[in-house]
């Protein structure tokens, strides 16, 4: 039979109590760190950056030989990361070129006058900009293209 010193027997519950209190007191600090990390991630995801492409695009559209029809489009790029702006600005001449070519390819002014036609053009513009950013190995992409001005003049 083992005899435990009465002084040690009283220290064991005291040591367990101190351990428990320390763990309980540090819990809010750990939970706060996790919440801070989650809040930082949520803030990063909520970033929306609008990048204007100036000046507006003006080009003629339509089939060759027909009456000249003009298209004027003001474009703003929507990005969801702060790191996208420098990549877009670095490649702005190439991005503008792609959009000039896209707008110049349009032959159906009636289609462009419809919501469906404008939406299809907007989606194609987004696709082409993302292709350029991928080709240039920027590691960035845009979330969309907005037409802040869209005029078809016949």
UniProtKB/TrEMBL annotation:
| Membrane topology of the entry | Single-pass membrane protein
- List UniProt keywords, sorted A-Z: Cell inner membrane, Cell membrane, Cell projection, Chemotaxis, Cilium, Flagellar rotation, Flagellum, Membrane, Signal, Transmembrane, Transmembrane helix
State where the protein is found.
Cell inner membrane; Cell membrane
Organism equals: Marinobacter oulmenensis
Question: What is this protein called in UniProt?
Answer: Flagellar protein FliL
Q: Would you identify the family this protein belongs to, as annotated?
A: Belongs to the FliL family.
Its BP terms in the Gene Ontology are:
bacterial-type flagellum-dependent swarming motility; chemotaxis
* Main location (coarse class): membrane
Job of this protein = Controls the rotational direction of flagella during chemotaxis.
Tell me the InterPro entries matching this sequence.
FliL
Q: Which domain of life is it from?
A: Bacteria
**UniProt KW GTP-binding keyword:** no
List the GO cellular component terms: bacterial-type flagellum basal body; plasma membrane
Signal peptide feature range: 1-31
């Amino acid at each position: 039979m083992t005899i435990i010193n009465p002084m040690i027997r009283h220290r064991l519950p005291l040591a367990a109590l101190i351990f428990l209190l320390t763990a309980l007191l540090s819990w809010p600090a750990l939970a706060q760190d996790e919440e801070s990390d989650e809040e930082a991630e949520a803030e990063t995801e909520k970033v929306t950056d609008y990048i204007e492409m100036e000046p507006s695009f003006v080009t003629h559209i339509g089939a060759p030989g027909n009456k000249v029809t003009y298209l004027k489009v003001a474009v703003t790029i929507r990005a969801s990361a702060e790191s996208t702006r420098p990549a877009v600005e670095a490649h702005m001449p190439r991005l503008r070129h792609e959009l000039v070519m896209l707008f110049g390819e349009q032959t159906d002014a009636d289609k462009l006058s419809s919501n469906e036609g404008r939406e299809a053009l907007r989606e194609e513009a987004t696709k082409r900009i993302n292709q350029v950013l991928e080709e240039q190995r920027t590691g960035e992409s845009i979330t969309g293209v907005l037409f802040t001005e869209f005029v078809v003049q016949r």
